[in-house]
Amino acid sequence: MTSTLGTPVFSDSPARDLVCRGCGTHFPLAAQHACFECFGPLEVGYDAAALASVTREQIERGPKNIWRYAGLLPTGADPASRVTLNPGFTPLVRADALAATVGLRAPLYVKDDSANPTHSFKDRVVSVALTAARALGFERYACASTGNLANSVAAHAARVGAPSVVFIPFDLEQGKVVTTAVYGGDLVAVEGSYDDVNRLCSELTETDEFEKTAFVNVNVRPFYAEGSKTLGFEVAEQLGWRIPAQVVIPMASGELLTKIDKAFTELVETGLVEAPADGWKVFGAQSAGCNPIAVALHGDTDVITPVKPTGIAKSLNIGDPAAGIYALEAVRRTGGWMDYADDDEIRDAIRLLARTTGIFAETAGGVTVAVLQKLVDAGRLDPDAETVVFNTGEGLKTLDAVAEQVGPTYRVRPSLRAVREAGLLD
Ligand SMILES: *Cc1c(COP(=O)(O)O)cnc(C)c1O
Ligand SMILES: [Zn+2]
């Protein structure tokens, strides 16, 4: 928890301090992630006046990536200070055919974060975390990962020529292992679950050997988490500076969900976006194999009982979700809901999304679209309110999920007659 490393050296960042999400105690900006008073998680606090000075025009003049929102992030304005693949500004795809299929009458959009440099939303959080980490004096980059974070940390480290060491559960999809290992850093397959990996990484941050190692989602987690806000900022800007009525978001630790909600709140507080008359509703999606946050909501409790994750949605398999109670709070406060989908529903939803939008999602995207359907069926989502669903990862990394369901629809010899006989010309 303590660090001999310095405070970040961004003179032009709007970040002011770190604030405990549990008891509200303030701490100076540093490589600290837990409260000394109550051990609660810390979040970046901002200078309200600095945030309020950011204008739409400034943002619109900025680069077509997350750094157009630099004035709303805990890092500085100097591009040379960044450890980044310049992710973001991914497509917001209008999905009329999907809307019709699931039973929505109002516009539906898919925010497609598979278009990021390493093909998941994790490039956003890693760019912000590692930029802060370098400014804090860290020299090696690391993470505990369910797959996509591993890809992104290894690629970011390679881009700036820094050493990396990435920890994953040993049973990840090959598509996530290869796309991490190829960047050449150390890749440690741990014989345990993600929650075991995370615990190990927390212990490693306390050792002298890892003193100069930034674990993006452990010892610099407050900075990491802020990167997720850019998904919320982008959606609002791409809708013409409006906040959608309903958003459906996949949950692993639950952090992404809380930060999209935080982004919308900040946009309203800074005056960049007008507060929608009816607010916005936040919906969370998990898989049946790892559903501790949704089960707590359904049981009307704040007690999140950790689970041992199973199932194909491995990128979401965090059995003891660090931001779970904050995700519950955001969903309850906004009047949203959560649900979960089993492996067959996830596979069907991957194919549904693909054939109605041309977007091939990884299993997490299947989870989100399957839950979208359930929320409409159960009457939780208003079919007449504008909705955005988030596809956070790329289908090519989890090919096995649907490999047995799809394939060639015909097989023919290379002759016109064979094609005719197969019925293709009918
Ligand atoms: C990490 C991840 C998420 C969600 O992450 P949180 O821990 O809830 O912030 C969602 N989708 C994909 C594909 C991911 O890799
Ligand atoms: Zn505290």
Describe the structure.
- It holds the Pfam family PALP.
- Keywords: Lyase, Pyridoxal phosphate.
- The protein has 426 residues and is of the alpha/beta class.
- It folds into 2 domains: 15-83 and 122-224, Rossmann fold, CATH 3.40.50; 92-119 and 228-401, Rossmann fold (3-Layer(aba) Sandwich), CATH 3.40.50.1100.
- It has 16 helices and 13 strands.
- It has a 6-stranded mixed beta sheet with strand order 4-5-13-10-11-12, with helices on both faces. Strands 8-7-6-9 form a 4-stranded parallel beta sheet. A 3-stranded antiparallel beta sheet has the order 2-1-3.
- A hairpin with a 5-residue loop joins strand 1 and strand 2 (26-27).
- Helix 11 (292-298) packs across helix 12.
- The longest helix is centred in the first third of the chain and has 15 residues, at 122-136.
- It is globular.
- The protein starts with 14 loop residues before the first strand and ends in a 5-residue tail after the last helix.
- Bound molecules: pyridoxal-5'-phosphate and zinc ion.
- Zinc ion binds next to loops.
